[in-house]
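We emphasize that the prediction below concerns an isolated chain of 559 residues; any contacts that depend on oligomerization or on bound cofactors are therefore not represented. The input was used exactly as deposited, without trimming of termini.
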Amino acid sequence: MLGVMAGSCISLDTAPYDSVAQGNFWQTEEDATRAVMGVYAQLKEMGSYGYMPLWDTYSDIGHGPGSGLETGKYTAKEDFLVSNWKDTWDGVHRANTVLKNVSTMSLDDAVKRQIMGEAYFLRALYYFHLVDFFGSVPLYDETWDITEKYMEMLLPRSSAEQCWKFITDDLTRAIERLPVTWPAADYGRATKGAAYALRGKAWLFQKQWEKAISDFEEIVENKSESYGYELYKDFGALFSTAGPISGNHEEVFTIQNKGSVGALYGMEFPILYGTRGTYGSGRATCMPSVKLADMYQLKDGKPFNWDDYIPGFNADDAVKRTAFEAKLNAELTDYETVPDTTLLARIYADRDPRMTSSLIVPYSWYEGWVTDKAVMQQYAIAAGTTAANGFIQFDRGWKVYLYRKFVPCGDMKGALTDRRHSPVNFSIIRFADVLLMLAEAYCEHGELDKAVECVNRVRSRVDMPGINSGPEWLAAGGQDGLRQRIRDERAFELAGEGHRFSDIRRWGIAKELLDGRKEVEFTGTTLFTRTFEVRHNLWPIPSEETTNNPNLLPNNPGW
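Result of the prediction step, given as a token string:
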């Protein structure tokens, strides 16, 4: 449970960050609470965590339209890179402002501790993003008041080790101060369990397996507190239901979203993932890769192979086109010719259920919204499809899979009123992610049986057979085999949630997976080719920043 609080009467983006003078602020508990809500609010900015879904497009399991960040043809002036730097630092400075001022306020000690715990947690989360994408960065704590010392903020970059220590120290302070749960009216605020989870993730990124295990076990096994996390029974509902969802205890740290009139505090899923027939019209900027779709196993856990269903499919693009392509009639209202959609339906129905909960596959149906009413749309692979005529309209014209995750159905029964503000919650960390991170730490520490148990808990939620549960094709095959199983499981479970690019970089396999990789249509046509050099493991610090502060140089290796 956590994230940006959307259900209370407190504004999400208020003083001291905009119109109220600091001298008139920091007087009451309400002031302190409003200020920390402003730190949460920054999470939704494009360059912070608001566009976290885009991060999968830089990996092997997703893609966008072929931007410079995907093809490796970008510089230190790239707009999205600049936004990530600026928006995330804004979060750090907001957290510092809260820590500096709340520490001297005359508040109830318990209230002060909790609010400072939230600020420590959020500062660590913002720094986590900076260190993950930009490497070592300067460390500014609450003694650096941006309103007083802006012109003096010219520190050099601290070492990676110092940055990670800063993050884990903040999370230790957060653990000491945050409650296990909040009252219902405060649902969405950071908790002790969230701080343990993020600290465990920080240890995981540093390959400190024992420390990661300790933190993850704390909340998985409820060692010192009853955290109450569990997998929600309906996987698909997590990404299609306006939050919070009754009975859902899978959220560990989640951006709370609302999209109804008078409460526009949502995220841009309809635009990023939706098509023209999605509420308000979407651009499908983020798309799952054909590789991801083909990775999903059969329901019995066997690897999927197109040739088992359509002989010659893998080697012959003409066979692929025959399998998928239809032709509409002159009125564009019905089919003139159509492939074997019964066979295609069986191919997709035979797979891990997370596939069709996460992806819109050819000739499946989707409930969109056209001219103020819900309209069922079929994903026909044909020229001339329009949402008004009952088809998914994808103006890019590419023959690719589309996301179903986070794409609204209709107007979500009135919960969605603005396409930039989806009311579906977005988990930065959820319990399935924690279980798979714990599995990874166990595996790397040599505790293979425990790793298998964690993976199987995640698989059992969607009735997929467990690893090492009998048949030969389910055998993990030692540490190397189990390591690959865990990596694949993260792709199946977390597709479209923005984790994969960080994963493949920290695993040291990004160049292997991405350099020279062709993103293709499922009919075989190449859309674009990626380039990934070693230097792309970290983004460069933006040119404007190194000009303003030469102490940030040298830039990251290769830049």
